[in-house]
Amino acid sequence: MTPRRFSPDALGSAMREVIDHTAGLGAQPAVFALVPTSVLAELEPGLVADDDASELSPVQQEIDDLDEFLATAAWPEAVTGAVLTTQITVAPPADAASRQAEQPARLAVGVLRDGPRLAMMRLLTEPASDELLTHPDLAVDLVEALAATFEPDAS
Question: How large is the average pLDDT for residues 47-65?
Answer without folding.
Answer: 88
